[in-house]
Model the fold of this input.
Amino acid sequence: MRGLKDFPIEERPRLGEQLNQLRRLLEEQIEERLKALKAEKREKALNEERADITLPGSRWERGRIHPLTLVMDEIIDVFLGMGFEIARGPDIEDDYHNFEALNMPRDHPARDMQDTFFVARDRLLRTHTSPVQIRVMERRKPPLQIIAPGAVYRHDDDATHSPMFHQVEGFMVDRRIAFTDLKGVLTHFLRQIFREDTGVRFRPSFFPFTEPSAEIDIQCLLCSGKGSTAEQAACRVCKGSGWLEILGAGMIDPEVFRFVGYDPEKVSGFAFGMGVERIAMLKFGIEDIRLFFQNDMRFSRQFPSF
Ligand code: PHE
Done:
């Protein structure tokens, strides 16, 4: 078309007309071919890329209730059955509630038993659930019958110690609460959690916030208290002693009552604390505490769930 100007002027209209016809023809044919190619491509894709709707889909992995939650719920259930109510306190505590008001003044050697994570000058990760005792007694009057479940933290890390673990604290305060009440409540609790005929032993011990204090053992779940099994002279679970330490407890120290403004001449009470991981490990025969915190479904799947 650019060459049209080289032709004599009277021939140009006819030539122009012919060129336009030619161009339309080419355009039509290209359009047609394009359509055919597109249709062909679509046909091919439909045949070759067809989704197989009979293939099974990929499933979501189903979650389970964590074994610690199972055990925690079971513990809470037994105490609710005895009329206890649930209280909670902060994971980040101050020195006063975690130590001072529990009769552990600064520089008291008993603080060494609970190697502490400090997060600021007067702020620490609670090393036990006992500060919840203080917080509840500060704002309420007896009678009290409370459990306090929750996470606690200690600078400790091996097969049986985790820097974060769980405790259930419990306490009862009223007029004339006696050591026999503590024995009755804890013996019933342990026989609900372990076996109806489990042997229970109260051993003298020491805690700054209870007097007298006791550690409570149950008869070994593997050797039934014999200390040895058919396979081993010294039972692998209780190391031959026949007993397993489960709880710390005692009668609330008069000093603690003074800190919260109770009159120790008028009220008395008991308190106890237990480690949830330890109970779960004994119940399920788990030998490494770290398994609880690795989030491996092959582990979690092994526990009863619903
Ligand atoms: N708080 C104690 C601990 O963590 C356990 C305990 C609680 C002992 C209540 C006596 C009374 O070691």
